[in-house]
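Sorry, explain these tokens?

***
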Amino acid sequence: KEIKRSVNVSDEFKNFKPLSDIGKRSDSVSALIAKRFVRSRKLPESRFYFASSGKYANRLVIPYEDAKGPFYFQARQMVNVGMKYLNPTYSEHGVKSSEILYPCSSNIEYVILTEGPIDAITLQEAGVNSTSIQGSYLSRHQIMEVKNSFKHVVLSFDNDEAGRIGMKKSLHLIRRLNMPTPFIVQPPK
């Protein structure tokens, strides 16, 4: 069913600049920090954008794309001012973050679920099939999509309080749905 929305996600990309186009002299400090953030993780700059104005200004933009183009994104703050992450809203864009998984291969028997897309991208760059749930709470919609697409599930949430709480709630949901117990991998403290 077509969802009425005031702004199309792909239209938002007109306000974003490819991160690979960010130069040293003409761009903001936030843009240069975003570029350094991506480089420090050895990720390809070509996969990311930077918002220099508008609602998502001064944020690294992480696109969620498929064969049709971008369908979602997450905008990450580069300095400690305001909310760290800003996602497209349902009321504006017709997309709920709880219904989105970062694109991954469904041709592989396993998937690693991470909290954030940067974690998923980093694993993908290392050749590991992974997806992001945009936070520490796995939704019923997301787990049903995972259940129907993968034989093995690995939970790998952050090793902080939110990650531990999210892990417990996710395990509870998985058990309620009579799915096989997932593997759990957490980073060291």
The longest helix spans residues 161-176.
